[in-house]
Amino acid sequence: MRIDECIQSLSMPLPEDIMKRKWAGDLEGAMAAIDIRLAGDLPQMLRDRLTVEKERIRRLPTQYPWQREEAIAKLRELVPDITDEEFDQLELAGRIDFIYINGVKHYFVRFHRTLVKTIPAMMARTGNMPTPVSKWLDPMIAVIKDKGVMSRRITVEASIGLSEGRFVPGKYRVWLPFPAKSAQQSDIRLVDGNPDVIGDENAFARSAYWEKDLTSEERTAIRYSYVSTIRYANPLHAAAPDAPLYPDALPVEDADLSEELPYIRFTPYLKSLAADLAGDETDPIQKAWRFYCFATQKITYSFVRDYFQIDDIGEYCALNSKGDCGLQALLFIALCRISGIPARWQSGMSIDDDYVGAHDWAQFYVDGWGWLFCDPSYGGSAWRAKNTERHEFYFGNIDPMRMAANRRYQAPLTPAIGCFRVDPYDNQTGEMERVGAEIPFNGRDLDEDACLIGFEELG
Questions:
Q1: Where are the alpha helices (H) located in 39-174, listed in sequence order?
Q2: Which of helix, strand or coil describes residue 237?
């Protein structure tokens, strides 16, 4: 199967009748219409587009499992006193995502968690009062600003396996993200795990890889350590240093100023938005700051359906005024590139005191400073908490408790996978393939797939 080519075809629209059936909820009809076309003679890109759409439609219902009464019941598990009328108003305001399936509304699987995470009044009704102070982040940021640098050796264990009941004996191929050499990451060590191959340290998407003949179910695990060093940048209020803060960062590449279809597109709307936000400003730092403020203050953080189901991530985020960490980062990257500011993707994991999970952020390049960081998701969280100091910190900086495995969105796995990936665009939690038979996209067990073993202060 032309996996990578199929994904690239998402830059073109669906035939109109298939699109109508899909969004009317006639998923079976849409699949049947696709099959009729695929049986005929088609241009290759259209064939790829229809092939990938079949996979998207197959996955779509799992993202929207609940009908209205079930959805209200799920929300009441978190907010017991929520009324039906409040639910309907939140839906009309665009705060609750839904689709139609066979004429019936079905609601997004994590809509309720978005509401209690991003609406302070809703959070308060859960019994968890929002606070502007983070006992984990704010002390760390204070040290970075005071000393100018923070360096930590971080040890993480990650694993991947199949959901219960999904195992079938056979040959398996496994990819787990592995720390890549980057501006802030160095001295990367394999502690345990014995992969067959570890990708090049400068790979666009670095991973550890195994091939296994399995007769019984088992998880694939790896433990690694690395040094994460953050040097404080204050681009809004300080002059550029004599030398870039991160001299080991890879140089600017043509791709850092370019479209990368299908998901980093310079659409007419994004070009207009970038021009509106920049106005008469010519300083790249000030322009980037305006893009950051838009992404953190005007975009409502929201859990969203799989990126695989979204046609144009940057424009979707800007047009719908919502998005999670990846959508916000990609919007920031697109706006920067449109305005001539080199910008690139970083992703892997964010490591908090009690949670390790997938996370995305951005870098942007400014003469004098070199490569700087930008995390609109963490910045937006600070803005919602009315913590302006933390909000400003995440423009130019990130905290050191990250693991960066990817520096380009849509980078292929090495070696190439033979089926549709769970996440076709980024490897943050790992991928598995049973040779000769595709593992269903929801066949992975993602519970407790990564944990912090510990970290050591280095200065």
A1: 44-63, 68-78, 84-92, 111-118, 120-125, 137-147
A2: coil
Chain CA centroid to CA 413, Å:
17
Q: 151 phi and psi, to 5 degrees?
A: -130, 130
- Measured CA to CA, the distance from residue 345 to residue 243 in angstroms comes to 23
Secondary structure (3-state) at 277: helix
**Mean pLDDT of all residues in 174-192:** 97
**pLDDT single digits (tens) 26-69:** 999 999 999 999 999 999 999 999 999 999 999 999 999 999 99
Dist. CA 73–CA 80, nearest whole Å: 9
pTM of the model: 0.95
Contacts of 325 (CB under 8 A, 6+ apart): 359, 360, 361, 375, 376, 377
Q: How confident is the model at residue 444 (pLDDT cuts 50, 70, 90)?
A: low
Residue 445 is inside which H or E element, if any? strand 444-445
Dihedral angle computed from the Cα positions of residues 261, 206, 373 and 287, in that order, rounded to the nearest 10 degrees = -10
Q: Return d(Cα 144, Cα 381) in angstroms, integer.
A: 19
Per-residue confidence band for 129, with pLDDT thresholds at 50, 70 and 90: confident
CA 266 to each of CA 207, 260, 409: distance values in angstroms, whole numbers, following the listed order: 30, 9, 15
pLDDT bucket at 271, cuts 50 / 70 / 90: very high
First to last CA, the chain: 50
CA proximity to 267, closest of 335, 327, 326: 335
Torsion 119-67-23-261 (CA) sign: positive
Nearest to 229 by CA among 402, 354, 35: 402
Structure tokens at 24: 């009317």
pLDDT at 103 (0 to 100): 95
